[in-house]
UniProtKB/TrEMBL annotation:
Natural source organism: Cherax quadricarinatus (Australian red claw crayfish)
InterPro entries documented for this protein: Alg10
Pathway terms, separated by semicolons: Protein modification; protein glycosylation
Enzyme class of the recorded protein, top EC level: transferase
Function: Dol-P-Glc:Glc(2)Man(9)GlcNAc(2)-PP-Dol alpha-1,2-glucosyltransferase that operates in the biosynthetic pathway of dolichol-linked oligosaccharides, the glycan precursors employed in protein asparagine (N)-glycosylation. The assembly of dolichol-linked oligosaccharides begins on the cytosolic side of the endoplasmic reticulum membrane and finishes in its lumen. The sequential addition of sugars to dolichol pyrophosphate produces dolichol-linked oligosaccharides containing fourteen sugars, including two GlcNAcs, nine mannoses and three glucoses.
Lineage start: Eukaryota, Metazoa, Ecdysozoa, Arthropoda, Crustacea
Protein name per Swiss-Prot or TrEMBL: Dol-P-Glc:Glc(2)Man(9)GlcNAc(2)-PP-Dol alpha-1,2-glucosyltransferase
Keyword line: Endoplasmic reticulum, Glycosyltransferase, Membrane, Transferase, Transmembrane, Transmembrane helix
EC annotation from Swiss-Prot or TrEMBL: 2.4.1.256
Predominant subcellular localization, coarse grouping: endoplasmic reticulum
Membrane topology: Multi-pass membrane protein
Amino acid sequence: MGTPQPSFIFPLVILTFTAVSYVFFVVVYTVQPTPFIDEIFHIPQAQKYCEGSFLEWDPKITTLPGLYLFSIGLNGPVSWVLGHQLCDVFSLRITNLVAAAFMLFTLHKLLIHLHKDKIDSWKLMLSG
């Protein structure tokens, strides 16, 4: 249905999204390098997870620990390779950028799987 998109378009979209998000990330980090808003609760909790303290929990936090687990799953192997812990504010914040790029990719693949015969491939890409 419609014009098929060249195979390099979606990777280019993800790359552009990630690059623009990274520039925004650096600007925000430059202006605010310390935890702010709800990070004052979440950063210390994520750092406890990085240290392996999974049973300590801040009662002010009402969300599930999914992002903390994702952070140590992503940062743990990188920390091991680099030889030092990556649980500082910068590393924990950038985990969100990696997750956003991954979610964009995953959502696009899911939409293709569900609607590939019903919607033009360009619309599927824009929906992601």
